[in-house]
Amino acid sequence: MDRLQKVIAESGFTSRRKAEELIVSGKVKVNGEVVTKLGTKVSKNDTVTINGTKLEQQGKEYYLFYKPRGVICSTSDDKGRKTVIDYFNNNTRLYPVGRLDYDASGILIITNDGDFANLIMHPKNEIEKTYIVKLEGIIDGLAIKKLKSGIRIDNQICYPSKVKLRKKDLKTKTSIVEIIIHEGKNHQVKKMFDKVGYKVLKLKREVIGFLTLKGVNVGEYRRITPHEIKKIYLLAQKKD
Ligand code: URA
Fold this sequence. Notes:
The chain is of the alpha+beta class. It has helices spanning about 5-10, 15-25, 115-120, 140-150, 190-195, 225-235; strands at about 1-5, 30, 35, 40, 50, 55, 60-65, 95, 105-110, 130-135, 150-155, 155, 160-170, 175-180, 200-210, 210, 220-225.
């Protein structure tokens, strides 16, 4: 059972605020009866009509997508570039959870469930995201120490991160570094490395919580199972 205004908003009919206005002004019926009380609970079996039009309740969908580089992480693009949603053939108003840069690749959750998206993104839930970056230069211990202790970018302090040097290539003067954070500030990883003096040449997100790209090829997706959804909610609750 969900609140009526939430069901209306999630159907894509209108925003939650507008849905509340429609309810209060007597435009919404549940099973033929006008309902004006905000917060009335309805289920999938209830028939909701707005100004006489039947609301199609959409089921919630959850996908784990392997975003390729050169694809925009958005539902549309004014420059006509390919978006992550172009990979999905359905009309249930899917959108990506959080950002992954145009030139970045890796794991991305795609859903039509706003509550789930917030759960994944909100730093208080501490859902960890693991990134692998290729850096220009050989990263030194001091830079790693600074990243670990929590640095300031764009005048905001970042939570401490977990950082590990995976590989260094003295010939090409590049380093491969793993960094784990649980926030999603704009271009956060690139800015964090920039702050300690290193340019990110390549960026890939490998893990969100316990979800990995195992078995998913680049440009492909799989459904996230109900069991995995439940596990993510449990993971988030532990941090409450
Ligand atoms: N941090 C970045 O800099 N870019 C991303 O795409 C994700 C995290």
